[in-house]
Amino acid sequence: MGFPIIISPVSSFDPLWILTYKFLPILRLLKWLPFGSGTFLRCTYMGWQFEEKYAFHEQFGDAFILVTPSTNELVIADPDVTTEILGRRKEFLKPAVLYKHFDIFGPSVNTVEGDTWQRHRKITAPSFNERTSSSVWSEAVQQAVDMLQGWVQRRHEGTKETVGDTALLALHVLTYAGFGMKYSYSSGVQRPQPGFTMSYRDALSLVLRHVTILIMFSRAFLGLSIMPKKLRDLGQATKEFQKYMEEMLARERQLISKRVPGQENLISALIRASEEAKELGEDESVQGLQDEEIFGNIFIYNLAGHETTANAVAFAIVLLAAYPEWQDWIAEEIEFVFGSGQTNKAGAYEAAFPRLRRCLAIMVRLPDF
Q1: What is the average pLDDT across 330-353?
Q2: pLDDT classification of 283: cutoffs 50, 70, 90
Q3: In terms of CB atoms within 10 Å, which end of the chain has fewer, N or C?
């Protein structure tokens, strides 16, 4: 086909290489080897696209092939070609072998393809609705107010843990919008429910922070007594996160059998959509989601929404602090929309969100800082 080729002895999707590259930063010096022999190191670690941006394409063109022992990756920087590929998902399937690593709690809409993906998509999509968005709004506002109060109380010291603070904010919004469990921003380790050694929040936090280890090692392996305490704690967190999901599933099905409305959260909407699909279909295994598929999708909801949200908010905060003129720009809009009113009062989301165009512009398309 005439595409430039970069040959690499490792792939950025290789779990062992991910850990090796992370904990042995001296390897990064190899990319400066002469005659371009270390070029592959620039594109074989997680997130290399963000750091390199268009640099590789300036050197190799709009498309090049990265050849590794496990995969051949065609890297494209052409919007027309990208649109064509994304619009023909039946012909350009996701490499399932790469996504299966995330089936830690079961298959999900992110790890399956073909007819199975369509089934997952049909059931999971309705969970993301305006009722859920309203819950996200109200909880996010409350958590943000609490976070800001903590910063203000520190006076001139401010905070040096912006990413950590926004990660906690995102985690609490997820636990509420996803599972209906509310946590105070300023609270420490939570007292677990009867029958558990960890709260839902603390178990989920451990799972999300160490997902790379969960990809590399089986959950059963982490529970062995010979493992270090940190890994045993992680193994316990996966068991308890699974148990929380199982209890929620049983509780929601009990409410459905009694025709009692569910809570306004993602897991309730997902379970009810799956149960409705099963009732409408002749074959439950085809129409609805199996229990492990429900668990897999709940996990993916959390994994996809936590770090991305936390980093996006932290990134925006830092840039707004560095460029106060853009702070003034969105502050003017917030003052116009809310005045002296409360941003988390009933109905604020439906009335205010469509009008917050400057705030949306900051988060979706950052100005030229």
Answers
A1: 80
A2: low
A3: N
